[in-house]
Protein 1
Amino acid sequence: QNSVSNKHVLPPRVIPEDKKSSITYQTVPILKIYDAADAYLVLYQSSQANIARVAFPKEWFKTRDIRAHIRDTSEKIGSFLTVFYKDGVFYRLTVSVSLDRRNDVWGIIDQKDISNFIVDDTYVLQY
C-alpha cells in the first residue's frame, strides 16, 4: 500500500477572536517602476502571467500621508508591491524597491502617458 501518513501535518492554528486583525494584504512582484512628475507608474506581474499597470499619486508618499511608503530593498530581495486593506477596503501600500535610481527597475515616463492609470484610495490590486 502507498498510503501517505499525515502524522507530521499540524492542524490549522486557531486564532482567538480577540487576536484577529482586520488588516489583510496582497503582494506582487514589480517588473518596472516609472517616475513621472506627479505619480509613480508601477508595472507588476499579475497572476495570469500578464503585466498589470497602476499609477500612484506622489502626494500619497509624503511624510504625513499614510497611504503609501517606499521602502529600500536590496537587489537580492527584488522589488515588490504590497497593498494593505482594512476591513476589506484600501488602507495603504508599500513599494519595496532599490532606491538607487541607476537600478534597472527604475525608469522615467511623461506624466501625460500615465494619466489613465492613476488610482484613488478605493484601489484594489488587480490580478
Protein 2
Amino acid sequence: MIAPFARDLASSGAFRCGLTCIVAAAWFTGCSQQEYTRLETTASDISAGRVTLTTDVVQPVTSAVRVALPDSVEQFSMLLPMMVAKAGTAECSIVVGDREDRALHVFGIDGHYRHTIFGGGRDTSRLPSISALAVSESGRIVVSNLGGRMVSYSLNGDPQGEFTLTSPDTTGFTASRVAVHGDTILEHWFAVSSGTRSDYWGGMPLVRVFDVDGESLGSIGRIEQYPGLKLTEAMNRGRIAVHRDTLWFARSSDAVLMAFPLDHVGDESPARVVRLPLFYEMLPPVERVPAGRPESPYAVVEDHIGAFAVDGAGRFYVAQSLYWPREEERLLRPIQVLSIYSAVGEHLGSFDFGYEVVDVSILGYRMAVVLREVGTRVQLMLVDHPLATGGASDGCE
C-alpha cells in the first residue's frame, strides 16, 4: 500500500511550471517568449446545456498498490502512454508496452510480474516503436507501431500476424489508438498530432476497420471540418473502447461520447450520443500563428477527456480535466480526476489520484490506472474499485 497522494503537489504552481518547457518543446517551438496573432476561432458552444460539476464531488484516493515497472517503461512518452488490461476470463492480465526495450510486459491483476514478450533483436524487432496496445477477450494482443505497422501476439507471446497500414493523409505519419473486437481491429488513426495540415480532412473516416490480416472492412464515423489549417485534427481527436457489439468514441475536445454499432460498419453518424457533464467552461478553440512564421500555425484546444474505458456494465471511466492552466497562450498539463458515469451519462463519482491520469482499464473489482508524475515519470497503480458494485461483469476475479 502507499501513502495518500499529495494533491497539493499536483495542483501547485511548482508542479505546473516544472512541466512548462517539456510540454512547450514537444508541442510548439520552445520556452522562449513569442507573440501570437489570432487566425481563426470557433464558436464555443461546448458547455451549452451541460451540467457543470464542482470540485465538491471529487473524492481523494488514499491507497493503492504500485506495480513495479522496468525503468525503461517509467519514462513518460510524449506520444501515447502504453497500458491495457486483458479482461473477459477469470485469469486477467495487464499488458504494458515498453518502447525503450521494444517489448511487452505481462502482469497479473494482483500486480505480480508474469513474463515479457520480446519483439526480437533491437534492429530487427517486430516492435520497433510501440504507440498503442489492445487486447481481445480471447487474449490476442494487437500492437500498433509508429508508421502503421500492426503486429499481433498471443498472451503467451506466440506471433499471430503482422501487416502495415497506410495513413489516409499525405504525411504517412501514423500513431494510432486501437481496439479489438473478436477478429476485427479498430483504429483511430490520428491519435497524436502529426503537425500536418488537416484542412482537407473533412469527411474522412474517424475510425478504420480491418481484419487480423490487414484487409479493410470499411470505416466508422467521419471527421467534421473546422476553420483553419490545424483545428480539424485537434477538434476530432479522441479515444476508443469497445463494449459488447458497440464502438464508443470519446471526443476529447468537448467530452462527447458517440456509439457506433459494430454490425453497421460504414455508418457515418452515431446511433447514440452521450454528452458528459463538465467541470468548467472551456475557452473557444483557436488556431494561432507565431509572429513572423505564418507557415507554422498551431491549434490551442483544451481537451475535456484523457483516458477512457467502458466496463462490462456499460459504465464510462473518463480522465476529466478540472481545468487547463495556461502560460503565454500555451496549454500546460491538465489538472485531472478520474470520473465514472453510468451508461446514460449520470455522474457516479470523481476520484483524485493527485497526478494526471493517462490510461485506465477495469478489471473486475480493481482498476489499473497509469499516472503521470512530476516531470516525465509514469507509474502503474492498482486500485480497488470505488463503487460497491465494482466491475464484476468484466469477468476478472
